[in-house]
Amino acid sequence: MKIRRLSAAVAAAASGALLFSACTSPAGGDDPAEGESTTTEAAGEVTCKPDLGDIETADGEIKMSIEDEFLSYNGLTPEAYSVYNSAVVDQLFGNFYYFGTDGTICPDENYGTYEAISEDPLQVQYTLNDEATWSDGTPVTYADYALDWAARAVTADGKVSVDGTEKPLFNHIDGLTLGDYVPEGPQADAWDAKTFTYDYERVYADWRIHAYPPLPAHVVAEQAGVSTEELVTAIEELDLPVLKKAAKFWGEGWLGQPGEVPDPAIAPVTGPYDFKADGWKSGDYITLEANSEYWGTPAATKELTFRFIGADQQIQALANGDLDVIQPSGPTVDTTTQLEQLGDAVNVDTNQNLTWEHLDFNFNSGVFSDSLEAREAFAYCVPRQKIVDDLIKPIAPEAVVMNAREVFPFQESYDDLVAESYDGRYDEVDLEAAKEKFEAAGLEEGEKVRIGYAAPNPRRAAEVEAIKSSCDQVGFDIVDSAAPDFFDKALPNGDYEVALFAWAGSGQIASGENIYSTPGTQNYGGYSDEVVDEAWQTLASSVDEEVHASQLPIIEKQLWDTLFGIPLFSHPGVIASSSSLQNVYNSAAQTGVLWNAEQWVRAN
Questions:
Q1: H/E segment holding residue 111
Q2: What is this structure's pTM?
Q3: Rounded to an integer, what distance in angstroms lies between the CA atom of residue 242 and that of residue 229?
Q4: Alpha-carbon span 478 to 466, nearest angstrom
């Protein structure tokens, strides 16, 4: 077994605040020059995608595991936005940038280029590759980005969002944040232009990643009964009747039945892979095939199959040849032991991951919704150090209890941030303090607390078992409420007292606003605090690193003082791949090992 680790230099480069999976990641070190692929020589690891030169797509199939069913071609609705759905759709859509192995924002000039052409006021110009087209032959143009802007800017009553708190017209995971910063929408000379600009009314900290991979405007226009040019005009003039039809299809039209491959007439792609006809077997796998109409560097291997396999079965599937690449969530001591037993048949990569485990309270209903004392009682009895010692350190000896949310323990600013925002009161279990808070909250013996998470997950089951062993002594009755559809049902419906899951980060500065602020679409628990809201608004509206540094302690301290939730640990990253594969690299970013899946190829 060959083991590679992310070097300390690479890990340290990923310093700063994070954007989370959902929409999340860290402001990394120096960006590479445009078009440049950087390499950490000591570790032999790439940061941005290496240039493979002129290649031809090789016949064959590479099989990768994901732990949940594919949901939707439109992965930008709250119902479909997950690490597992993104694993598939990320292969289907091109973009101006991608996240490198350490969270670095890497440009993709195959797709286009962009630059800030004015700083005050901020104006960003985007230029699409002249050859950039949808797989049905339709050029990618300003029209697609006008639709993307509308989906993140227009309110239900046909206006442009003022502060992001209004009811949105489109069911977008990002809410109304783009309209808040770019109220006039993208500007272009014609509806089918290849160049357009974002004119910012106020600066946005993450302007470098503000253009998302768009969905096809020409498809939405047809489904709304208008031409693409007419749809763009409707967006520019805020023509609500047309936009309502567009929003309805945007949110519902790409939903299908599990196992039914999306119709290529309504689901064209711009990435190196496309859906394979009849390539989806519900509950088993979905297969993508190389996009024959892709204008950039072609996919190195013809077929990429995602098999829906739980973490507890992936190593055996890898050993049997049923999988070629795995990235099991919640790796345990048994994970690394079993991988070692496979010897030279596999390559194993480990790194410090920009993904972190946490316990979040439900503020919408239940025992913790309106009682700080109840939340404190729970926090005092959660055995965070024991969880790290028993479950994480055997895999990652450097692991520590995580005491921040926006900066990771291996990042340079972590210690200073924690010193300013947290006094260590919940580092160790204090049952006496927990019992005092339990009584002060007016709780009675046997108070049921359901901890929900996505099943199966052996490590999280062990976490809940450790919490139950400790917190039941206080008077709680901890109930393991794991369910395979936790993210689809229990989490969005608030059917839990505590949610146990992880945010996966990449390379952003202000994504946490979407999680902790009052109108945040990823604020599943319904937390609301004026101090936190104001601090996020200040941080997100500045590109000044000193402003960011001044606001993070305010945010972190208030999240601790009000107990939004309880951070646990940074995930150790473990991937394993068949030794017959080339170009498989681990990534600390939320895209994980799939960040360069189109470059994977089997050695001759």
A1: none
A2: 0.81
A3: 12
A4: 10
